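User: Hey, my collaborator sent me this sequence without any context and asked if I could get a structure. I don't really work with proteins. Can you help?
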Amino acid sequence: VISNVRNYMNTFHDAPFLKINDRKILKEFLVKSGITDYRNKELTVNRVAQAFSRIPYENLTKIIKSQIIVNADSAIRYPDEVIGDWLKWGTGGTCFSLAAAVIAVFDSLGIEAHPVLADRYYGVDTHCGLVIIRSEGLFLLDPGYLLFIPTLVPEEKTVVVDTGYNKIELQPEENCRRIRLNTIVNNNRTYRLTYKIDPVDSITFYRAWIKSFTWEMMTYPVLTRCSAGTHQYLQGQRLSVRNNRGIQRTVLDTSSQIDFISLNLGISKEIVNKAFGVLNYG
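Assistant: No problem. I've predicted the 3D structure and written it out in structure-token form, which is a compact way to encode the shape of the chain:
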């Protein structure tokens, strides 16, 4: 169906963590996502973004791999692994591995995209997204923060994206060199992070990725996904489920956490149990 995918392989990036190397995995991902014709670049960008909206943000695979290797360099999950594991186990990744996978898929289809780093209240370069290069300007995506609607980076006026369960506000600062992201729920605005909108080179991106293995989030489960207008967010024992009608908060014991992750987020129970085994041992 996608016989000419190889004609687009590795167009813009040389770094191995920003490329798809296994054409079989790429083809299976595209077919499963219903992307069989990618001549229309704008439509393809939207379809790839929506395909990744079905892949959960989760740190379980990161926790597992960080415990069975000798250093962070070998713990990084490259795009082939992220996509292949989603196809097999229903797993996803954290912001760095997901952004790299999106960039790699775009790269294989001849669409130019680059990583951007972001600062959060607890540190510099502690988050990332990506920008897509198009004739109209830069379009922002952030699979780690569930921004799956390609959004033109604002140059002057604030842009608001309605996700169905909240609103994401993108506010330009410093002549559009920085983009402030706020969330709005019931007219309550909360600051979340600030993108540094200039694309970074692969080495800078890689170094920030490596540092992420030292964060506190490696000591408890963090998973989030939006499906059918409902946002599910699990941090440790605390589960929040939000839609346009409100939010429900629950505290889950370990058994209930494992059941929720496998039943509601679609991740193989084998993977979930393995991750919790690492956490319990730690």
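In plain terms: The radius of gyration is 18 Å. You can pass these tokens on to your collaborator as they are.
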